[in-house]
Amino acid sequence: xxxxxxxxxxxxxxxxxxxxxxxDIEKCAERIQDECRISNNNVDRIKxxxxxxxxxxxxxxxxxxxxxxxxxxxxxxxxxxxxxxxFDLGPGLGIEDLKVIQGxxxxxxxxxxxxxFRATSNGSPVFYEVLKSxxxxxxxxxxxxxxxxxxxxxxxxxxxxxxPIVDGQQEVNADEIEALSSKGRLRQIQxxxxxxxxxxxxx
Length: 203
Prior knowledge:
Elements: E1 4-8, H1 22-36, H2 40-49, E2 50-58, E3 61-68, E4 72-77, E5 83-88, E6 95-101, E7 104-109, E8 114-119, E9 125-130, E10 143-146, E11 152-156, E12 171-173, H3 174-178, E13 186-188
Parallel strand pairs: 1-5
Antiparallel strand pairs: 2-3, 3-4, 4-5, 6-7, 7-8, 8-9, 9-13, 10-11, 11-12
Helix pairs in contact: 1-2
């Protein structure tokens, strides 16, 4: 791999709530090995430690995201020389949902918070927490749902009802989400760098 970047964020101990089958996670691990020639040991670590593993394509880039039981999220930048970025999302939370919609991966936690990541113009991933209008974390987001033509997303509560996100709207598109930055409603998660190859897919 051309580069190795380990970043630490704030999210976490993912448990088995990310709503993806073990067979799908194993298939994803094998796909990453085919794409980026990761070792058999790392494939085994994904299969043993992963609670979600999904491909994210958008902005001219292709990435594979592996969510680990520990709360770490390892992103393999397939179209960027198979560079790897690892985020430690911190202790105490669990992932409820991980969905890929319109080139972005959306994640909700058991505390009802909402996060998403996407590729940047240089191919590396960028992570955000989406905040409420009062600039506090969401507490009621359970899952995400794309609209019928794939251009918008709904933030759903535990009763499968959409929540208002922007100016009372329940359905928002990618541009509207990105525009929340100007309102102080996107909190970017910063990197902390490290260099441990063996820990990439380990809890």
